[in-house]
Amino acid sequence: MKILVLTENYPSNNCHNRMYIHVRNKYYKKHGIDVTVLNFKAKQDYIYEGINVISKNSFKIDNYDILCAHAPNIKHHFPFLKKYKRYFKKIILFFHGQEILKWNIDYPKEYSFMKKNKIKTIFRYLYDEIKLKIWSNYINKNINNLHLVFVNNYLYKKFIIYTKINKEKIEKNKSIINNSVGELFEINNYNKTSKKEYDFITIRGESLDQSKYGIDIVTRLAFSNPKYKFLVIGEGNYYIYNDKPDNLIFINKILKHKEIIEYLNKSKYALMPTKQDTQGVLACELATFGIPLITSDIDVCKEIFNGFENVVLLNNSINDLDIIIKDLKHSNSKNEKYYSKNTILKEIELFKELVWMI
Q1: Region 119-130 average pLDDT
Q2: Closest Cα partner for 210 from 98, 315, 314, 304?
Q3: In this predicted model, what pLDDT tens digit does every residue of 207-252 receive, in sequence order?
Q4: pTM of the model
Q5: What is the architecture, at CATH level 2, of domain 183-325?
Q6: Fold for domain 2-180+340-357?
């Protein structure tokens, strides 16, 4: 089987963006699928950990069985689909969040230090309405040649509300398949007995300044709980514009999976609050790894972390962490909910089913 994967960005030696797509692709390849990634932001072709990545200019029509479009946008994905859809036996649209949600409704207010532009705000609002209208029309017209994959039920419900597509029309052509965690979080276990340097660890990649990930909540909790030691790792300018508590250490860096595991084993608890999310893959990886994890008591987290013994949901307005800690515990065994065999393998089974139906 041969597939083409469309994505706005993709990991490289200098970028860790869209790692959740790369995790899939490595698993596909491991199971005998020929994978090519078209990275719209790539200036030249490259190979990353065995996966062939091409730029838009390098794309050539080939005998692909399936086209997988991740987080499809109307700037790049939609024109490509319109131009080349007839060359693919089946097209799968993977919806991860932003391509469905509305900025002014679903996302929290930006931090005050982030540049505000009224024109940009208006554009975002209009863009959301336009993108949903375009995808609604496209899906309605082409549903027989499409399959829609949503990473959870929360997102699927939002999709139905915003696009106003009839559920019955797409029921046979949609699936709910969660994102998978990285392999290292499956095969490694949290070391409960190792020496702990930090009480709470928060890891946020290059998204530190996005208010939905709640670094302001972490900071407030650190101020309110001075007896505990906090570690925050990620890229951003938040602490340039906001006071940093003395008991909080900030490392301005993006970590690879191996580095994440090293820091987790130095920490007692993972603190990963959020104001809005669609799955929170990193939080799932931490919970799967086995460290006791605190995240937020919002609808999507209730769905995603249902069944995890080592996860406690936090009211984002709470200040006393002792109240939360008393309910935290280690799980007796690893939760396999987001293992590749329960997520990506379902995608491979879907691929085979769709190709067989053609």
Answers
A1: 88
A2: 98
A3: 899 999 999 999 999 999 999 999 999 999 999 999 999 999 999 9
A4: 0.92
A5: 3-Layer(aba) Sandwich (3.40)
A6: Rossmann fold (3.40.50)
